[in-house]
Structure formats: structure tokens, C-alpha cells
Design brief:
Blueprint (H helix, E strand, L loop, with lengths): L3 E6 L11 H4 L4 H13 L4 E6 L3 H11 L5 E5 L8 H7 L6 E5 L21 E4 L4 H14 L17
Parallel strand pairs: 1-2, 1-3, 3-4, 4-5
Helix pairs in contact: 2-5, 3-4
């Protein structure tokens, strides 16, 4: 198993910070990438950070990381609600998959309430803003270390790393 987390972003996330900042905030995708790299480094992990508006590119990335990686964090954007192809790709994964959404999709339009991605996800984060990406990476690190989360105990980086 390698120490790399795939952080995969779907359509329109390249416009983060410009597109509907009242919903998604003012942070850019570059800001999210920096947050992910910093968080992962604290756990001795690396990040392969990708974004594509093309479904087949996202599927190819999942295929490349489905076995042997530290896990996958995916914000599939609108494909969350429509893509059986992404679900099928994620169902081949032998690593944990964390679904991440910047906004609380359950407080938005009804069509956003359904997620194909969640059917293959180990965990789902929504509504934490871009901080959800850091939470997802922390969760992967804890799963990798065999440290299940316990109520009342904070997630912390391993001080020995």
C-alpha cells in the first residue's frame, strides 16, 4: 500500500471561489489543494489532487487508485446525482472512499439529495465547507492506522511521524 490519497474533484469545481461564493465560499481550488497537502503531510501522507469536468477522466483516476493507495476523497460535483458510471468505478475500489461536499446538499434543491457516490462511500461529509476535505483526509489517516474514531476523542496527527 502506498501513502498517497487521491483527491478527486468533478465538474465546475475549477471555478471554486468564483461560482456561487454565497454557497461554496471564496476559497479557490488551489486553496483546497494546499489544505489537503498540509493535512496529509501531518499524517505522513501525500496527495494526488485532480479536477476534471469530464466523467471519463474521473473514472480513469479512480481506476488508477482503486487498489493500493491510501484512499480516495471525491467531490464529484453534479455527477454525484447522475453518474452510475462513477458509482460502478468506485464499487471496484479496495481502498476507503470518502464522499465530500462543500455545501450541505440536503438543504438545497431536491435533486441534490440523492447521491450515487454514497452507495460506494465509506463515509460522507457535507456542509463543512472546504474544511470537509481536511476532515476526509484525517479520517483516511485514522482508518489506515487502524484507529477507529471514538466519541469524545479528537482526530490528531501522529506526533511520532
Amino acid at each position: 500500500m502506498n501513502d498517497t490519497v487521491l483527491v478527486l474533484n468533478g465538474p465546475n469545481l475549477n471555478l471554486l471561489g468564483k461560482r456561487q461564493p454565497e454557497i461554496y465560499g471564496h476559497e479557490t481550488l488551489a486553496d483546497v489543494e494546499a489544505l489537503c497537502r498540509e493535512t496529509a503531510a501531518g499524517f505522513g501522507l501525500a496527495v494526488d489532487f485532480r479536477q476534471s469536468n469530464a466523467e471519463h477522466v474521473l473514472i480513469d483516476a479512480i481506476h488508477a487508485f482503486r487498489v493500493g493507495s491510501a484512499g480516495i476523497v471525491i467531490n464529484a460535483g453534479a455527477y454525484t446525482h447522475t453518474s452510475v458510471a462513477l458509482l460502478d468505478a468506485l464499487n471496484t475500489c479496495e481502498v476507503p472512499v470518502i464522499e465530500c461536499h462543500i455545501s450541505n446538499v440536503h438543504r438545497r434543491e431536491a435533486f441534490r439529495h440523492h447521491s450515487y457516490i454514497s452507495l460506494a462511500a465509506t463515509a460522507v461529509l457535507a456542509g463543512f465547507g472546504t474544511h470537509g476535505y481536511a476532515l476526509a483526509i484525517r479520517h483516511l489517516a485514522h482508518l489506515r492506522a487502524g484507529k477507529p474514531l471514538q466519541a469524545g476523542k479528537p482526530l490528531q496527527a501522529d506526533k511520532t511521524a
